[in-house]
Amino acid sequence: MPSSGFIERRSNKILILGVLLVLSQIAAIMLLTSAPAEALLGETIYGLRSAFHGLLAGVLMVTMTIGLFQAFRLWTGESVSIGDLETGSVLNAAICFVTIVLGNWLYIPYRAKGGPRTYFLENSPEVHKIFFEFKEFTALFTLPLAVAAAFIICLYGNRIQSNRILRETTALLLLLAFFYFLVAFGLGAAVTKLKPV
Asked: For residue 25, what are the domain limits?
């Protein structure tokens, strides 16, 4: 094959992270200078909690989707970078933990007298039972599944590639974590639209 004169090099991770940081700062500045804070956070005192929970849920959507892609690659036996898989799975589990902690912190005003729970129980109890209670318990499944996948990946490392049982178990854990997250994410968005905290 004739040489084209280009030398292929590996990407510089520091450079990529730096570019992402600069782009994130530009986006934050544009957002904060162009939209009033009350429009971003809502009218209640719990707006900041909700904003952080929603932000982390959005980030978790990205990491869970990457985990789903890696699960597919593991399931089909494709070669994967174990270092990337370890980093991604640990990050996924950590973001999942923080998102759940913030969600539980939001649950306090949800259940408070006069909060959305009171409203739903009086006007539409099925929304409370399905959209919120079911969502909360479903969301809690994501953490042990994500932690178990990260544990297996970090413990067995490169041996996962050659062991079908480890590969498929890890893939299944990542798939189930994505499924439970997706259900909780969808129901959470729906209940927030119906009656925000």
From this structure: 10-41
